[in-house]
Amino acid sequence: MKAVIFDMDGVIVDTNPHHRIAWREYYQRYGRTLSDEDFVQHVSGKHNDDILGHLFAGQALSPDEAKRLAHEKEALFRELYEHDITPVAGLVPFLQSLKAAGIRTAVATSAPVENLDFVMDALGIRSYFDVLLNESMVSHPKPDPEIYQKAMSLLGVEPTDSLIFEDSMTGIQAAKAAGALVVGMATTQSPDELWPFVDDVAHDFTDVTIDRLKKLVKVF
To answer: 65, 81, 97 — which closes off a domain?
Structure first.
């Protein structure tokens, strides 16, 4: 194992509760409601273009309008999350162990660069990552594997040398399609829901160690 790649929302930070609140408020602005079921099916792990397609079903949004609406929603999210932001338990010690072991690291998120910068700087963890990728750096969002393939390329590693942490089914599909081992983070979905699709499951990083991951690599 030469590289560990992280999704951001639901992996580095458990933002889904605040994204859920932000999207619910945003849906309400436009006369729609967002149930928990709809959040999992149409929002969690999805690109903003797809979510806006659900919110404004039947309406043709221009690229500029879609971009403006997405920025508006993400600004609302950052405002809501600013005072509550915290890393998933055990993240920083785990990142420190990876750095000490010489294992390369990346973040590969479908979020906009503003959200990525917000999380990196608010938590002071930017220096732990060799590569940072956001939505603007790929042409095809998850579940397409492009963002993970690009992360591996920039890190200079092969899929067989890589392990990815993901929480959503969309992200897990992308990670698997990229050819890496995948650890499912049980922040968005339960372990039972994740297990059929991943190689290991963790609730947070408190019990994730390099030795545990290396054993996983040897199994496969």
So the answer is: 81
Residue range 115-174, pLDDT digits in tens: 999 999 999 999 999 999 999 999 999 999 999 999 999 999 999 999 999 999 999 999
Q: In what order do the strands lie in the sheet with 131-133?
A: 131-133, 104-108, 3-6, 162-166, 181-185, 200-202
Indicate the burial class of 139 (C-beta count within 10 angstroms; 0-12, 13-18, 19 or more): exposed
Q: How far is CA 105 from CA 3, 20, 23, 155, 193, in A?
A: 6, 28, 30, 8, 27
Residues 116 and 33 in one domain: no
Question: Looking at the structure, do residues 89 and 70 belong to the same domain, yes or no?
Answer: no
- Identified catalytic residue from 9, 167, 199, 200: 9
How far from 92 is each of 21, 45, 190, 207, CA to CA, in Å? 26, 23, 23, 13
Residue among 140, 12, 155, 154 at smallest CA distance from 87: 12
Q: Give the residue numbers spanning the domain of 62.
A: 16-81
Q: Is 192 a catalytic residue?
A: no
Domain boundary pick from 37, 61, 81: 81
Q: Residue 138: which residues within 8 A CB-CB, separation 6 or more?
A: 144, 146, 147, 150
Q: Is 7 a catalytic residue?
A: yes
